[in-house]
Amino acid sequence: MKQQPSSAKSNRPRLFCIHGNLQPPEVWQPFADAFYTTDQQGHASPLPITEENLWSAVWDTIDEWVDDFQQRIHADCCSPAGFLLGYSMGGRLALRAALRAPNKWYGIILVAAHPGFAAANDQQQRRERDDEWARRFEEMPWNNVVDDWNRQPVFSGRANPWPPTESELSRAGIARMLRIFSNGNTPEITPALASLAAPPILYISGREDSKYCRIGKALAATCPVITHTIIDGAAHRVPWEAPEAFKQGVQQFIDRVYAY
Length: 260
Hints:
CATH class of the domain at 14-117 and 187-257: Alpha Beta
Distance between the termini: 37 Å
Largest sheet: 6 strands, parallel
Structural class: alpha/beta
């Protein structure tokens, strides 16, 4: 069953947050009161967050999620709706939502998001890799597979600041998410991003995550709307590993692009 939109539209901008895999939507709660917008008179107003819950409904494709998300945002909010923030897998989804309706947003914030693979062979290899991870989450002891997940180079050996527990996440849900939202299921979107005139996009990577530092640098060099920020003291999970620097970078971006 898909998430249902509310009946009344809001003209107040929001920050829509999309979590990554192995994360509950509550992972964004530490930032619930972190951000604000400022009017031309210098009056600040809180920027409320809305957490997208990727565990609450079932979609069969990435495009299906994008269609459903856009329908809910359109029903709930005036345009632009506000800002869109996505981490890792959630960042990939945010990118596709932004491309579908770029005028819907004041700005997009991406944390360690991959733009996809251009070559069909690379896409296939990624699908196979994600399917193998899905199988492991279905079959292996929980602590073993989570430990293996955390050994991936993008995490740079750092402990997870918000460690997942088997009781709060569904093994079947993790496996399904890995397969449905696999980065191998969609083509590379760098050319589409390069043609965008709006909205502005902030791409954030942690200095210890060399892979996504390279991706962010390449995207900023290719796509005029993208600026890239590298945050010290963090690897892949920037918001939770360096929260103060993350908040500062996001707020500076909001101040730069938002005006009443």
